[in-house]
Each structure stands twice: as structure tokens, then as C-alpha cells.
Amino acid sequence: MSTKLRLGVNIDHVATIRNARGGRHPDPVRAARLAAGAGADGITAHLREDRRHISDADIDRLSNEIELPLNLEMAATEDMLAIALRHSPHAACMVPEKRKELTTEGGLDAVGGLDHLRPYVERLVAAGIRVSLFVDPAPAQLQAARELGAPVVELHTGAYCAAPAGPERAAELERLIAAAAEAGRLGLECHAGHGLTYETVGPVAAIANVVELNIGHFLVGEAIFGGLDSAVKRMRALMDRARAEALGARSA
Ligand code: PXP
């Protein structure tokens, strides 16, 4: 089990608030700097086709002004590929995108989209960008990711987070645990994210093989009440505690 669990802070919704009025405030790059100071290991941003939050200029500035690795979330389109190749972020996470959705509602269908995704994965990998596929915790999706040559998968934690506490959430957690184990068997690096909160992060942080969590909406929401610095620090502490306890339990 990996001891180090990385935290990628997704700053999309700082841009959502900025865009509600136009102008420059609040600045996602300032948020990224604050997150870095509070213990984030990376910055994640989703450049959507409709540019509803992060803009092209934000990606320019995040690439040039932030020292932490940038994880660019992107749909598998020629436009996005060109942008990724131009900026050469540390990582690119391929996500499904529908214009009408409020957020990324489910994982990428890597099984059904093998032929479509293959050239995108190949070109990003050839450019030295670490490619991950954002998939539901289902074995067939992980096998497809492996077949596509993506080195990383990010497990969609949305169903787990949306389930009421109790047997339903426990069942979703079991799916995540099994998928992370399968990712390990397939030699895939395993990340997780979507919808994570202070309440739901611990059990996911405790999953052996998960080495990175990407968290955004909840942190930006909490920042309204107590500041981004404090929200990131608290999330980091909860993740680290859950991971340390899991490691202790396994070595006992
Ligand atoms: N990971 C991926 C691939 C995502 O698309 C998102 C949402 O943009 C997140 C993580 C973060 O989700 P949330 O904002 O709900 O924490």
C-alpha cells in the first residue's frame, strides 16, 4: 500500500463564481497558489467545451504561473487535444462531456469508446503527458483502459458520495475497493474523485492502491465559510489520518 496519498485541488468552481459576474474576481490562479500553500500536491482544471468555468486564459496562466503539476481534465476532441499538446500539462484526465449536464455525471465509456479514444490516448502518451481515464468502478472499464495504454485510471466516486450513509454507500464503497484492487492487478495507477466531502473522504483515502484524490466543488463551497486555506488543510488532514489508520491496521 502506498503511504503517500496526493491531493489534487480542482479549482473549476472558483472560475464558476468569477464567471457569474464576468471580470477577474475570484481568480482561480490565486486559488491554486493558496491550495499549494495549504498542502495540495497538484491542481486540476477542466476546460469544458462550453467554457462555463475555466477559460483558455486560465489554462495559460495555470501552466505558466503555478509550480504544482497541472492535471487538465478534457473531453476526447481534436480541439482539446490541440490545447493539451500546446500546454503539455503534467497529466490529462479524459472525461466524458455532455453540454447539458451540471457536472461530469458518470465515467467515460472506455469499453464502448475504444476506437474513438485510442488515437487521443496514443498522442497524449507520445507527448509525455500522463493520461488518466475517468471511469466508473467497473472491471470492464479498467480492462479497456489497460488495452488503450492509459497508465492511470481515476475512479468516479460520485455514486458512493451520493448514496445515503448505510448499506447503499457501503455497497458503493465495496465497488471502489474492488476496482482499485483490479487496477493494481492490471498495473494501472489508481486515482479517485468526484463529490468527495469531509464526511466521505476517509474510506476512499483508506483504499490501498489509490494514490491520488481530486477534489473541488466541496472545497470551494467550504471556502465560503472558512477560507480555502483552512478547507484544503482540513481535507488533507482527514485524508492523511485515514491513510495512516489504514496502514496501521494492515501492519498490525
Ligand atoms: N475528478 C474528475 C475527473 C472530475 O471531472 C471532477 C469534477 O470536475 C472531479 C474529480 C472533482 O469533483 P468535485 O468537484 O465534485 O470534487
Number of strands: 8
What spatial order of strands do you see in the largest sheet?
1-2-3-4-5-6-7-8
Q: State the distance separating the first and last CA atoms.
A: 14 Å
User: Low-confidence stretches at least 5 residues in length (pLDDT < 50)?
Assistant: none
The level-1 CATH class: Alpha Beta
Helix count equals: 11
Bound small molecules, by name, code or SMILES, are:
pyridoxine-5'-phosphate
Structural class: alpha/beta
CATH superfamily: Aldolase class I
Order of helices and strands: EHHEHEHEHEHEHHEHEHH
The proportion of residues in beta strands is 15-25%
Under the CATH scheme, the architecture is Alpha-Beta Barrel
- Fold-level CATH name: TIM Barrel
Rg from Cα: 17 Å
| Structural shape | globular
What's the mean pLDDT score?
96
Question: How many structural domains?
Answer: 1
Give a short account of the largest sheet. Answer: 8 strands, parallel, barrel
